Structure formats: structure tokens, C-alpha cells
Amino acid sequence: MNVHATPQMTAAEQALIDTYGQLFSDLPGDTAVVVRRDEAVEALKSGLPTRRVEAWHYTDLRRLLSTVPAFDPLARAKEQPALLSGATVLPVLSGTVTSMPQIEGVAIRRIFDRLSDGSLAAQLFDGDAADAIGAINTAFVGDGYALDIAEGAEIAKPIELQNLHEGGQTHVRFATHAGRNSRATIVERQTGTGEALVSAISHITVEDGAELTWIILQEQPDDATFLGQTNIEIGADAKFTLFFMNAGGKLVRQEVTVNVAGEGSEFILRGVNLLAGGTHCDVTMVLDHAAANTVSTEVIRNVVTDQAKGVFQGQIRVAREAQKTDAKMACNTLLLTDEGEFSAKPELEIFADDVACGHGATVTEIDQGHLFYLMARGIDEKTARGLLVRAFLAEVIEDLENEAMVEALEEKLTAWFATHG
Amino acid sequence: MLEIKNLHARVAETGTEIIRGLDLTVKAGEVAAIMGPNGSGKSTLSYVLAGRPDYEVTDGDILYDGQSILEMDPAERAAAGVFLAFQYPMEIPGVATMEFLKVAINSQRRARGDAELKIPDLLKKVKEAAGTLEMDMAMLKRPLNVGFSGGEKKRAEILQMMLLEPKLCVLDETDSGLDIDALKIVADGVNALRSPERAMVVITHYQRLLDYIVPDTVHVLSRGRVVKSGDKGLALELEKNGYAGVVGEAA
């Protein structure tokens, strides 16, 4: 794989490999899983990706993830109140499932069990050298939840998956299968306290006619690294809405891989990146339109302050047979300081000849005329700037069309702005 | 209430001087009309009074209630009672008009040490003012000024003025973009605010507005200075003879 002399390993690479050596006998998994874990560690031995790997061009993982904290076997995070009252909370506390609530219409299993019986092996690292998140997670994943939503089930209450830590390392998975014509809303919370390396991977299958809304709220502490990956397969006449809000973390990479595989289906992505301090946040999406008559819209809004850096890579690929694809992608950034940075790299690869595809990226500052207008009505500068930042983001959040959810997320926005505005 | 003394102001970015030694005094209870040809500095004067950072004051002073306001930012001036009705109100997508009104009113109340207005009281006040101006409450659910017609924007400005109850009102070309019916409604709204404690500076290019908002004094601006002052008769004279005579006379 690497014809050049392998440079000396970084402390992080060495620690990951050594840790695997110490932990592997305690990790769950049948033979198939162990094979995948070993392959993942072999890949890590060739080094974490640098900017020479195209997918990591704006996020040199090898340089940015120079050290990793050790596992902390004594850490035991506490369950958090749900984002929406009435939600069923499924908590993974410091990497381990501690309770198994019942939800009518949803079969719930532990990832621990699905590793042990090998039924999850197919979702683990498959040798793709650029898939560093898959490799790290595959090496160490120990638990999480697997949800199977029954055909036709309409799950009224939101389900909240919580991945919480108190420092150290946690590597979890959320596998979700939404049966035909089912309806559900799932919230994924990623947060904790203390220096940490967190990886979380979800494989989501949305069967024909199903409608699933998935909300990722990432609020890692300032000294945590978060490596997230969401892999989605969408069936015919199905609808999948993914909303994410990144509001924390020192180093964040969030990968979204979508296969719009069934005719007549729809994919909606709405994302908000709130970037402050020295954070580096990279959202990388690869979206395949593989079937005819499918629609997708992706809108990412970023607010960048302090010396924060943001990245959005959005690749849309339209297969030859995916005629009448309608795909629109936009990435808009509001820079609040001269030191902040945002890089956007939209890409379209179109092999069908009858499609409507477009993308746009903008970077703006606060409009001084707007600011003056608000201040001329007696609104102090900080409040006025806050109103304008919220205005910039409101549209994206309001697209969720769920009033309680919109309110809850706007509260998160207010809290973030109170600290970083 | 307002004393402008030998004011010089320029565009911050280019250094172009627009206001060149302007003197003007407006007493409490007075309605002063500022007239003048295009480019005479009328709008700049309104922005400088409100504290727009795009303009720099290089000499002179603006005293409001005897105190200089030059060091105050726009929000502080507004909280002290200075209000500018914009010639071109900003469209601000994403900020709901009602939310904006609530934040503005309560920011000013807080700055003055008054208790915040509760939502039902606020709604009642807004409804009353909107009724006077014959505005549709549904408009206030939209984002601030977005998709408002020219006339609706001007009404929204006067609505804000009625709600914020300023002591010094500066109206910049409030008549532009208004048809005659709307002009009457807006003028009625402004006239209702005339009081012995309140001063108004009404900037206009045409005499027309002054038929409805009758001024106590009229001042003609040319090249950044007041070149002639008089009573409402001066406005009629300008209407008849144009600016050339007055401006030429002074120059």
C-alpha cells in the first residue's frame, strides 16, 4: 500500500496499536469479527491518513490526532435528560450499554451481542485504506444499540441514542433497520466530559416506503476528538432526513455516506456547524443517486468564530440509470472573525443525461447595514449579532418541521452563543 | 433638545467630506424640516445623528439634551431616545418582525432601568399601533421588512417609532415610495406623536410631506451646511422657485 519508507509512527498510531494488543482478548466478537478487527489494525499500522489521501486533504488526521488518551476502565458516564421530553433514552455510558428499555414495534439488541454472534461483521472495516474511522472503530468497538423497526410500525415517541463519556476512549455503533413503511425519529447525542477519543458509526437501512428522521447533536468538550460516520441506504419511495449540529470538540470528522438506491426516494440533509476556539471540524459527504426519480437537498450552514476551522466536502454522484435525479447542495458560511476559516469542496459526478443538479458555496460576514439597523433600535451589539447569527441558521433548523425539536435545537444555539458569541 | 454645532463629517472609507460645518438647533416640541437638493447631505445628517459607523465626525459636536452623543454607539443613542426612521429600511431575513419588536422594546426598557414588557401587554400595544397605521397584523409574522412593499416598510418604521416612544425623531424621506393615501396615514401617525416633550427632524426633498406634517421651522441644506432657515413659508417658496435661488444666493 505504501511504497515509501514508512515514517516513524506517531504517538497516537503507536498507542492505538499497543492498546489493541492489550485489549483484543477482552473485546467481543466471533471469528469473522476478529478477522475484521485484525485487518483494521493492520491498516492502522500503515499510518493514519495524511493530506495526501484525497478524502483527508483538508483534515490531516495523522498530524491533527497526534496523541490519544488511554482507555479509562473506571469511567462511568451518567445518563442525560433527553433533548425532547417523552423520548425513550437508550444510553451507552462510557462505551457500555447499561439498560435495555422496551419500545413497541422496535426490536432492540446490544451491539455487544451482535459482535459476539458475528451478525455485525459485514458492517465492520472492509479494507478501504481511506476509511480511518472505520478502522479505528472496528478495532475497538465493544457496544452500542442495534434497532430493528418493524414493518409498518409508527413509533410515536422519539428514540434517543446517547453516547456519553467521562474521558478516555469510547467506540460505539448504532445499527438501525427501518422496516417497510415504518415511521420513526431518532436522536443521536454525542457528548461527555474530559479529554477523549470517541468514534461512533451508524449503519442505517431505510426500507421501501419508510420515513426516518435522524438528528445528530454533537457537543463534545473542547479537548475531545470525535470521529463519526453515518452510512445510509435508502429504498424505493422512502424518505430519510438527516440533521446534524456540531457544537463542540477539538477535532471533529463526520462522514456521511448515502446510497439513494430505490426509485422515487428522497434524502434531506440539513447541518449546522458552530465552530469556536481552536476546533477543527470536517463534514464529508458522499451521496450516490443510484436509481431514477430521486430527490436530494443538502444545506449546510456554518458559523465560525475565534481561530476555528471548518471543512465541508460534498460529493454527489449520479449513476447512468439515475435519470430525473434532482439534487441540490448548498454550503453557506458566516465568518465572525478574521482568524476563522472554512473550506468548502462541492463535487458533482454525473453520468445520467437528464438530471437537475446544482451546488453553491458562499462565505459572508455579518452585514454591517443589518447590524446598524438593529442597533439603531436600541439592541446592543452582542444581542444584535446574536439575532443575525440565529437568523442565518434559523431556516435550516426550521426545515425540521417539528416544533418541539426546533425549539430544543434553538435553545442549544442560544446556549452556544451565550458562551461563544 | 438637539444642538448641532459646526459639524463636519466624512465617509469613513473614502474620507469624502459630506457635512461641512453644519449648525442646527431644534427645541423640544419643535418640528424642524430639513430640505435640500440631492447630494446636499440630508441622509448623511440622519445617519450621523443615529451613529452609523460608516461616517466619521471630524469636527464639531452633537448635543442631545445638553450632552454630547458622539461617543455613544447607535444602541446607546436609541436607548437615550434618538430614533431614525430609515429612508431605506433594511430587509433582515430570519428575524421575525414581532421578535425584533420585542427585543428592541425590552432592550430600551432595560437600558433605562424599566421593567420588561410582558408578551400580552406588548401584543396589545403593537395591535393598537398597527391599527392606527392600518397595518395587517399578519405582516408582523413575516421576517423583518422582507417582501414588504415600499409603503409597508415606511409604515413599519413609523410603527416602531410609535412603540419605542423616542424623544428625538429623525424621519429620513419618509414620504418617498408612499402614495397619497398611505402618506396621509403615515402623517397622521407622526402627528399623533407630536408633543411638547418631543422634537422631530423631518428630512424631505419635496414640500408635499409638509402639507401633512406641518413644520415649525424649515432649514435648507446645501453642500453640507444649513444655508437658509425660516418658517413653513420657506418650504412653499422652494416649491415655487426651486432650490437654485436659495442655494445660489448662499453660495
TrEMBL record, chain A:
NCBIfam families named among the record's database cross-references: sufD
Region forming the signal peptide: none
GO biological process: iron-sulfur cluster assembly
PANTHER family according to UniProt: PROTEIN ABCI7, CHLOROPLASTIC
SUPFAM superfamilies in alphabetical order: Stabilizer of iron transporter SufD
Top-level taxon: Bacteria
Organism of this sequence: Nitratireductor arenosus
Name of encoding gene: sufD
Domain SUF system FeS cluster assembly SufBD core: 169-392
Name the record gives this protein: Fe-S cluster assembly protein SufD
InterPro entries: Fe-S_cluster_assembly_SufBD, SUF_FeS_clus_asmbl_SufBD_core, SUF_FeS_clus_asmbl_SufBD_sf, SUF_FeS_clus_asmbl_SufD
From TrEMBL, chain B:
GO molecular function: ATP binding; ATP hydrolysis activity
Annotated keywords: ATP-binding, Nucleotide-binding
Highest taxon in the source lineage: Bacteria
SUPFAM superfamilies associated with the record: P-loop containing nucleoside triphosphate hydrolases
Residue stretches making up the ABC transporter domain: 2-248
Gene3D superfamilies tied to this protein: P-loop containing nucleotide triphosphate hydrolases
UniProt cross-references to InterPro entries, sorted A to Z: AAA+_ATPase, ABC_transporter-like_ATP-bd, ABC_transporter-like_CS, FeS-cluster_ATPase_SufC, P-loop_NTPase
Family: Belongs to the ABC transporter superfamily. Ycf16 family.
PANTHER family on file: ABC TRANSPORTER I FAMILY MEMBER 6, CHLOROPLASTIC
Protein name: Fe-S cluster assembly ATPase SufC
Organism: Nitratireductor arenosus
